[in-house]
């Protein structure tokens, strides 16, 4: 979930939030997650409500940015002192689960009939294994199209709507790419997306052109198929020929997120961007992703909770997970607008739909589930995505042609898959 | 240190041409820093405007960096870690250098060569075992891995200090010996005080090395802004404030300035130290 | 090494104590690490599960690992450009400064500034200078009618990184060479002068041979630096997914070891890096020996 890789500053890093003073008899459990300090504060609130109901348990919440988070979890795990509860990204879950370091939650789930009834089934998918659940989803993210209304108005281009195809999208992006100050270099682009990880953009394009990403049972990377290649050429034409997307070097001059920096008229992202975009100086809104030759497809991914097998307080840890997974915890999370609750009753309630994060159509993110494919989840995902991403990067910088880059991506990807079969 | 006297063959070189080349080179060396200073004094909206002279002079970037990031904490962490490391290096390297310089013992030459060979061992090779060791000691996530290794000597420091100790006439030690001084006394009372210039030079080296070390800090303290050092803070800053050049240049300036000030104060020692390391 | 004092009876302990930290450092730091690293390179280990013996698999895997091969070739190209450029520039500056002109001290200080500046900080400064549309370098080129160059783009990034690294290293070499130049006895120049040698001949027959030890020292040092260069490259070439557009061996070790926790791959790469450095140093020693014999 690279979109969430916001490097958090100002305390950013370890915002260790301690609750009330600890009494001796209390059991203290730790919950670690990646995210911003604001996310840490929300979780601190959830933890306090939990503590009010369970006076004998204290929850220590710790937030780190994405990269440091995973390094830390690994080191703590290797040192035999993992956090009791920690956040999991669905694609990485099989890696952790297969190493036998996660607690099997199935017995706990069996003891609570009806616990999973209210949950969107697609979000549970990723955490299911043949031995039961070793994790539960916490929230989900569907990808939608964000657009800068001011730029559309200024260029006289009609706003994106749900009949848009990728061709309409490309045309609009071209019309929105401009040199607004007349200094001879482009300073406004029609579109920006991160095209390294499949989640924000390229996965959806490949799917909507009729291609697919991986075939895990056979250990094959499928992004080089004829249909997928049409998708890659679509992306490359828009980027390298129309030049309606900024290059990495161009983007670097303005920021890391082109839409947020106000240099791109359109962007694609999940709900996690809403709090980031909310303070923007321009007006913006959301629309469904465009349709491709194979229909409209977007991606869905979920973050979840896992409990370390080495936890000394599994019961207390489970109590916390159950609480945060439950209606109260989910409603609290819904309000901050970083993600969509996995609980139907909460997602379809005012807590989520009428959140004050930004005045946009929040229901769109739930509706997107109907045409969403889950982000690939398999053992070795991290290695695979790095291997594929490295090859893709060489296409976007112009070091390799698209066909060569994808061929390399497939080869790299297959090697990574082979290493992780067993 | 550098004394240049006129000589007949030197004047054949056209001095003016040399001066011109040196000036051009100096511009290339210093130009980036001047550009940094100029950008850091511009208003954010003027970052692309004007040339070297800010259209409106503004110091707001400097106050901003302290607001958006605990810069003072990072500065303090870097200073603290660098000072402890420097102390460790000065102490342990001068100890070993003293022994290599004036104490006779079997295998001295072999041991010294062995030590010099380690100059070639890249930091990356020590990084992984060291990481595992520190994790095992429970010191991951603390500042200790950044300064503890400094207390284990080091080829460069021993070499540098020994080089200087060798310039001290051995007769001094021998005379003290006749007066009944022990080795420790000779080290502490004679050699260390005499080696002040070399200690000063090496101190700057050791400080600089620790101050600038991004690799180790990235490994042990990748994001904990309460504990980590300035280089890591800057690397995080790069991501967070991409494109906000005026603020970024202010942050860069603040992190370069302390060393520059120290350099201007102590440059004589420092340059001698570098020269010393080059003598065979 | 026959000079010096013999420790008296009870002082042997003191000698050991004085040497202690350094000895421990040798055992733990350098040699222990080499053995530990070598050992780890025969395992597959992710820190979480028990290490699994894989023999030479990690090394064999490197031969087909495109990212590793790219890193290796980048590192070699980088070093082949960096070492001679640094030495030539530093020597040129030292020769120019080793004469009777005003402001030698000031020049020395200015040329030394990049050496003391934090590469992380200065790396950020260079990304600003190299920026494509608004960077000062392209603006200056634009002033004389040259279209903008993608300094950190795929074709130029490696060279841009070399330039920044050389820029940061000239000062150090300059000081070492200056010290060497000062130590050349003036009689040698006088003799050459009387023999009718011109400036160029004096440079090649007097100065450079006398500078051989400094040159040798600097070549070894620069090579070690070149193979270990990290900070500038990390800052200047970072891309989206935690990769670098100019990955070097050191970067690859860092990424495999501390980002992916592929300790086996990372240690195998570290061993390869060390072997290369040793090889180069060996070559230098050979060259130095040859040089000394006829002279």
TrEMBL record, chain A:
Gene3D superfamilies: Periplasmic binding protein-like II. Keywords: Signal, Transport. InterPro entries: Bact_solute-bd_prot1, SBP. Residues 1-25 form the signal peptide. It is found in: Periplasm. It comes from the Bacteria. Part of the ABC transporter complex UgpBAEC involved in sn-glycerol-3-phosphate (G3P) import. Binds G3P. The complex is composed of two ATP-binding proteins (UgpC), two transmembrane proteins (UgpA and UgpE) and a solute-binding protein (UgpB). This is sn-glycerol-3-phosphate-binding periplasmic protein UgpB. It comes from Dongia sedimenti.
UniProtKB/TrEMBL annotation, chain B:
Signal peptide: none annotated. The keyword Glycosyltransferase does not apply. PROSITE patterns: ABC_TM1 (PS50928). It is a multi-pass membrane protein. Gene3D superfamilies: MetI-like. It is found in: Cell membrane. Keywords: Cell membrane, Membrane, Transmembrane, Transmembrane helix, Transport. The keyword Membrane applies. InterPro entries: MetI-like, MetI-like_sf. SUPFAM superfamilies: MetI-like (SSF161098). PANTHER family: ABC TRANSPORTER PERMEASE PROTEIN MG189-RELATED (PTHR43744:SF12), ABC TRANSPORTER PERMEASE PROTEIN MG189-RELATED-RELATED (PTHR43744). Belongs to the binding-protein-dependent transport system permease family. This is Carbohydrate ABC transporter permease.
From TrEMBL, chain C:
It holds the Pfam family BPD_transp_1. It comes from the Bacteria. Signal peptide: none annotated. Its main location: membrane. It is a multi-pass membrane protein. Residues 72-284 form the ABC transmembrane type-1 domain. The chain crosses the membrane at residues 12-43, 76-97, 109-131, 157-181, 202-226, 266-287. The keyword Membrane applies. Gene3D superfamilies: MetI-like. InterPro entries: ABC_transporter_permease (IPR051393), MetI-like (IPR000515), MetI-like_sf (IPR035906). Keywords: Cell membrane, Membrane, Transmembrane, Transmembrane helix, Transport. Belongs to the binding-protein-dependent transport system permease family. This is Sugar ABC transporter permease. It comes from Dongia sedimenti.
């Amino acid at each position: 979930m690279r979109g969430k890789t916001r490097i958090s500053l100002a305390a950013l890093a370890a915002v260790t939030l301690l609750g009330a003073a600890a009494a001796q008899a209390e059991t203290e459990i730790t919950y670690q997650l990646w995210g911003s300090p604001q996310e840490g504060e929300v979780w601190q609130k959830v933890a306090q409500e939990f503590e009010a109901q369970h006076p004998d348990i204290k929850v220590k919440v710790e937030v780190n940015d994405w990269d440091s988070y995973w390094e830390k979890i690994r080191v703590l795990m290797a040192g035999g002192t993992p956090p009791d509860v920690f956040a999991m990204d669905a694609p990485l879950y099989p890696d952790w689960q297969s190493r036998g370091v996660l607690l099997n939650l199935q017995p706990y789930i069996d003891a609570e009939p009806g616990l999973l009834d209210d949950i969107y089934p697609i979000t549970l998918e990723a955490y299911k294994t043949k031995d039961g659940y070793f994790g539960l989803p916490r929230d989900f993210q569907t990808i939608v199209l964000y657009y800068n209304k001011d730029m559309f108005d200024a260029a006289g281009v009609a706003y994106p709507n749900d009949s848009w195809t990728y061709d309409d999208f490309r045309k609009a992006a071209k019309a929105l790419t401009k040199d607004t100050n007349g200094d001879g270099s482009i300073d406004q682009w029609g579109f920006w997306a991160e095209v390294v990880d499949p989640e924000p953009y390229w996965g959806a394009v490949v799917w909507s052109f009729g291609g697919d990403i991986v075939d895990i049972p056979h250990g094959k990377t499928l992004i080089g198929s004829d249909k997928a290649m049409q998708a890659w050429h679509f992306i490359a034409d828009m980027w390298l020929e129309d030049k309606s997307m900024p290059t990495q070097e161009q983007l670097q001059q303005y920021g890391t997120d082109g839409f947020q920096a106000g240099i791109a008229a359109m962007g694609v992202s999940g709900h996690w961007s809403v709090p980031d975009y909310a303070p923007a100086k321009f007006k913006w809104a959301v629309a469904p992703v465009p349709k491709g030759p194979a229909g409209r497809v977007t991606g869905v991914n979920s973050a979840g909770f896992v409990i370390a097998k080495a936890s000394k307080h599994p019961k207390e840890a489970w109590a916390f997970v159950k609480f945060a997974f439950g209606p109260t915890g989910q409603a609290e999370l819904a309000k901050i607008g970083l993600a969509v609750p996995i609980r139907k009753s909460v997602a379809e309630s005012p807590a989520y739909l009428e959140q004050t994060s930004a005045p946009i159509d929040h229901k769109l993110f739930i509706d997107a589930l109907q045409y969403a494919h889950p982000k690939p989840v398999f053992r070795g995902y991290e290695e695979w995505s790095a291997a594929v991403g490295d090859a893709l990067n060489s296409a976007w910088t112009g070091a390799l042609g698209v066909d060569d880059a994808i061929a390399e991506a497939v080869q790299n990807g297959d090697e990574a898959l082979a290493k992780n079969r067993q | 240190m550098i004394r240049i006297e006129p000589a007949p063959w030197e004047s054949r070189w056209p001095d003016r041409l040399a001066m011109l080349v040196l000036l051009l080179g100096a511009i290339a060396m210093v130009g980036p820093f001047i550009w940094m200073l100029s950008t850091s004094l511009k208003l954010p909206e003027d970052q692309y405007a004007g040339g070297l002279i800010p259209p409106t002079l503004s110091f707001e970037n400097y106050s901003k960096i302290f607001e958006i990031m605990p810069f003072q904490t990072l500065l303090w962490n870097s200073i603290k870690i660098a000072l402890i490391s420097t102390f460790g290096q000065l102490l342990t390297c001068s100890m070993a250098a003293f022994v290599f310089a004036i104490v006779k013992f079997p295998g001295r030459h072999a041991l010294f060569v062995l030590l010099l060979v380690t100059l070639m061992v890249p930091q990356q090779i020590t990084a992984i075992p060291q990481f595992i060791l520190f994790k095992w000691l429970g010191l991951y996530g603390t500042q200790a891995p950044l300064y503890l290794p400094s207390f284990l000597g080091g080829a460069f420091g021993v070499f540098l200090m020994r080089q200087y100790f060798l310039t001290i006439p051995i007769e001094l030690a021998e005379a003290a010996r006749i007066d009944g001084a022990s080795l420790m006394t000779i080290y502490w009372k004679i050699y260390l005080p005499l080696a002040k210039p070399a200690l000063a030079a090496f101190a700057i080296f050791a400080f600089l090395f620790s101050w600038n070390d991004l690799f180790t800090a990235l490994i042990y303290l990748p994001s904990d802004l309460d504990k980590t050092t300035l280089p890591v803070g800057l690397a995080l800053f790069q991501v967070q404030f991409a494109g906000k050049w005026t603020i970024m240049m202010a942050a860069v300036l603040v992190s370069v300035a302390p060393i520059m000030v120290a350099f201007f104060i102590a440059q004589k020692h420092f340059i001698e130290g570098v020269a010393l390391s080059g003598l065979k | 090494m026959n000079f010096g004092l013999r420790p008296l009876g009870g002082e042997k302990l003191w000698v050991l104590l004085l040497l202690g930290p350094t000895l421990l450092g040798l055992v733990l730091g350098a040699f222990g690490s080499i053995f530990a690293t070598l050992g780890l390179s025969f395992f597959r280990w992710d820190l979480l599960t028990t290490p699994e013996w894989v023999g030479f698999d990690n090394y064999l895997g490197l031969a087909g690992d495109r990212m590793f091969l790219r890193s290796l070739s980048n590192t070699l190209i980088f070093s082949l450009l960096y070492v001679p450029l640094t030495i030539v520039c530093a020597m040129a500056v030292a020769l120019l400064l080793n004469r009777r002109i005003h402001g030698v001290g000031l020049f020395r200080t200015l040329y030394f500034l990049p050496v003391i500046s934090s590469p992380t900080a200065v790396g950020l400064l260079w990304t600003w200078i190299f920026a494509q549309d608004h960077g000062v370098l392209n603006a200056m080129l634009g002033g004389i009618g040259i279209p903008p160059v993608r300094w950190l783009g795929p074709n130029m990034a490696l060279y841009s990184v070399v330039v920044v690294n050389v820029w940061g290293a000239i000062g150090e070499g300059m000081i070492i060479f200056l010290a060497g130049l000062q130590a050349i006895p003036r009689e040698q120049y006088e003799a050459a002068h009387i023999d009718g040698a011109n400036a160029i001949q004096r440079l090649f027959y007097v100065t450079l041979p006398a500078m051989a030890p400094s040159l040798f020292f600097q070549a070894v040092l620069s090579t070690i630096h070149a193979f270990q260069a990290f900070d500038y490259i990390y800052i200047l070439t970072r891309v989206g997914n935690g990769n670098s557009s100019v990955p070097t061996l050191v970067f690859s070790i860092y990424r495999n070891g501390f980002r992916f926790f592929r300790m086996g791959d990372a240690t195998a790469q570290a061993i390869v890096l060390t072997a290369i450095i040793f090889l180069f140093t060996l070559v230098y020693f050979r060259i130095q020996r040859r040089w000394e014999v006829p002279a």
